[in-house]
Amino acid sequence: MQVNRLPYKIIVALGALLLGWGCVTGPPAHDEQRPAEATEWTPPNSFYYYTEAQILKNRGDTDAAVQMMQQALESDPDALYVRRELATLYLQTKREDEALALLQGILRDAPGDVPTLLIVGRIHQNRKEMAQAKIVYEEVLAQDPDKEDVYLLLGNLYMNDAQWDEAFHVFERMTARFPGAYAGFFFMGKIHQERGEDDKAEQAFLRALAIEPALEGARFELIDIYQKRPDKAATQRKIITLYQAILDEDPENVHATCGLAWYYHRIGEEKKAVTLLRALAETTSENDLVRVIFRMYIEPGLNREGAFIMEEILEVRSDFGNLHYLLGVAYNELEDSARAMTHFKAVPPDSRFYRDAVIQQAFRYNDDGQIDAAIGLLETALSHEPDHPDFLIYLASLYEEKEAYANALSLLERAIAVAPENERAYFRLGVVYDKMERKDDSIAAMKQVIVLDPEHANALNYLGYTYADLGINLEEAEKLVQKALALKPDDGYITDSLGWVYYKQGRYQEALAVLLKAAELVADDPIVLEHVGDAYQKLGEKSKALEYYRKSLSIREKDREVIIEKIESLEKQIP
Predict the structure, then answer these.
(1) Is residue 307 a contact partner of residue 330, using CB atoms and an 8 Å limit?
(2) CA-CA distance, 370 to 397, in Å (whole number)?
């Protein structure tokens, strides 16, 4: 069975199970007594209610168990085991605050009570109150230093917060008390690595392996250390031996097979690399390959390595459509668009990545100026999935780009019909309405986006700018744009919108300051430059206004007549 390369996460989970809510002590044992000669009724006592509560809990009737345990506590308010068990029942019924209050009361009466501390620490962890959890677990170890699992739990809390010195001290204490605790040596090795102490890390991992020879994670860490060293024969032997040891334990280990194959390729032993990968293709499911290759190579950005491995596997299993998609992603990252497109095209409609592959191809066609090819591709994809919102929305955006607004509108209405909560469809709809000069419809669509997503910065900005451009609702426009800017503080277009709102409000000096900032953020936008010119003109600085109008005209492709008219008018006014 393949073992996770970062076993400390597993160990944390095991620690959680070991320290679960049921980790409590039961009631004290009672001496056996001879039955009374005469039977006379006695009222139920705390132990009776406690036992009944346990029976109810085991039957799954937690609410009734809580009520019965509360009666047990009423009968014996000082019984620690009852208070602790009631706290665990509160936790099971999501009454965390009541549980914590009860547990804190126990600790006031019995400071240092380890079972109670363990539950309190768990509550703090669940609440993401890690500083308090660490304090509690330190107290547990002070009271009972033989809690091996708590060392692991506490050490990992420190590691998760990059408190390497504190974590190392915990694992040092653990290994001093438990010399056979291989996990402690493993984590000490991880901390040495974080500190850049590879030689010390190597010794720690070797110590862990000496105690637990099947510890796969330690072998992988040693491989990483050795691969940083000069590529000498001795180092090569160590790396290959470590990989082979993993495969001897687990011949189907995808991680080790891919790693060893890449290493063979790296040192020029191509035949061995190819043999390993092609055998892997025959024996391993596509899902396992995709999962491991993504985690090992694509996610950390090792795209060249991943591409080599996938190419060899696809030589044997060209039908692995999901792997074609992943290889396309790798080539995209390597900026090899031709190979990326080849593999995206090989993803069949029944692949779970088909939609993503289609979108990737459409983006590439569009970026290359082949908008008709992108449209044809998406229309073909819609024949396979007629109601897929992403295809409908993206195809609509392409028609919008071609100014075929009726086509775009029809597609967006279809998208909204099948996905009425899709704010992206409403946003594009609002943009299309705006370009069709249907301002009221555009405003209504943008309002719907904000209903669906109150923090949709682009919709807030679009609506605010529309109001400002129309000269209406200027106070509301300012609030909308300010909110958008709070969500995207360095966005040049939203900054321009705020400046334009100020301009429409007659606050020209404030408008100019904001618009100049917008022009710094997006220096190549003709509308922003024109707005700066408008503000300068209102402030009587005609030469500056003319300067910005000319800048705007130099990069303007549409509506040039408007800016030319402004320039000609100013040129007549300036001597």
Answers:
(1) yes
(2) 14
215: left (phi over 0), alpha (psi -120 to 50) or beta: beta
Per-residue pLDDT tens digits for 164-193: 999 999 999 999 999 999 999 999 999 999
Give the whole-angstrom CA distance, residue 265 versus residue 288. Answer: 22
Q: What is the number of alpha carbons within 13 Å of residue 305 lying toward its C-beta?
A: 20
From CA 451, how far away is CA 285, in angstroms rounded? 44
- Reading phi first (left if > 0) and then psi (alpha if -120 to 50, else beta), residue 568 is in alpha
Q: Where are the beta strands (DSSP E) in 373-463?
A: none
The pTM assigned to this predicted structure is: 0.69
- Exposure class string for 405-442: b at 16+ Cβ within 10 A, else e: bebbbebbebbbeebeebbbbbbbbbbbbbeeebeebb
Structure tokens at 112: 């240092």
Are 310 and 326 in contact by the 8 Å Cβ rule? The answer is yes
d(CA 434, CA 27): 74
Say how far apart CA 381 and CA 415 lie, in whole Å.
15
CB 84 within 8 A of CB 72: no
Contact status, residue 2 vs residue 253, Cβ threshold 8 Å: yes
Q: Give the dihedral sign, CA 94/97/100/106.
A: negative
Q: What would the two tokens of residue 147 be?
A: 């809690």
DSSP state of 2: P
**CA max distance for the chain:** 125
Do residues 307 and 294 touch, judged by C-beta distance below 8 A?
no
Query: Could you give the CA distance from residue 361 to residue 337 in angstroms, rounded to a whole number?
Result: 10
Distance CA 511, CA 515 (A): 6
pLDDT digits (tens, 9 = 90+) for 228-271: 988 889 999 999 999 999 999 999 999 999 999 999 999 999 99
Residue 399 token pair: 């028609």
Token couple for 206: 């070797």
- Contact assessment for residue 262 and residue 256, using Cβ atoms and an 8 Å cutoff: no
Structure tokens that stand for 532 in this block: 């700066």
Residue type at 290?
A: V
Alpha-carbon span 124 to 131, nearest angstrom: 8
Cα–Cα–Cα angle for 171, 174, 178, rounded to 5 degrees: 140
Alpha carbon 107 to its chain centroid, in Å, reads: 38
- The per-residue pLDDT for range 504-539, each reduced to its tens digit, is 999 999 999 999 999 999 989 999 999 999 999 999
* Domains detected in the chain: 1-23+44-161 (1.25.40.10)
